[in-house]
Design brief:
- The chain is mainly alpha-helical.
- It is built from seven helices and two strands.
- A two-stranded antiparallel sheet has the order 1-2.
- Strand 1 and strand 2 form a beta hairpin.
- It is elongated and about 60 Å long.
- The two termini are 27 Å apart.
Amino acid sequence: MKIEEEIKSTVELSLAKKVILNLSFSRSIVADRFLEILKPFDLSSEQYNVLRILRGQKGKPANMSVIQERMISKNSNTTRLVDKLIVKEFVIRKICPSNKRKMEITITEKGLLILEKLDPIVIEHENNLASNLTTEELTQLNNLLEKYRN
């Protein structure tokens, strides 16, 4: 369905506006569906992102700036996200032995287990969203989005 039909627009939209609206509308759909997946696990998409970043550290601690720079949503309050994950026992925070002003964050076994449960569900979600496009179209879309963003 065209974006004009989705938003029931009655005016002519410029091509640039259509692109912005399509991106915004699509982002909303992707985010809403992803939140449905995370809801039973009591996680936000940002908390999930932090857990994925920490799992990628392969047991090596990360400080707050490393987590922040790797976040998808750069506006996230990383300290608050980590605090919530600590309460859920998905991560631990320790003072860095070489720099007492830095905090080191590490994913726990419980955090790894929750990601292990989520992995197949998330993969299925991603595959479902991509199912209307061919491999070539997905590659082209990815290239265009990267070009658009940069």
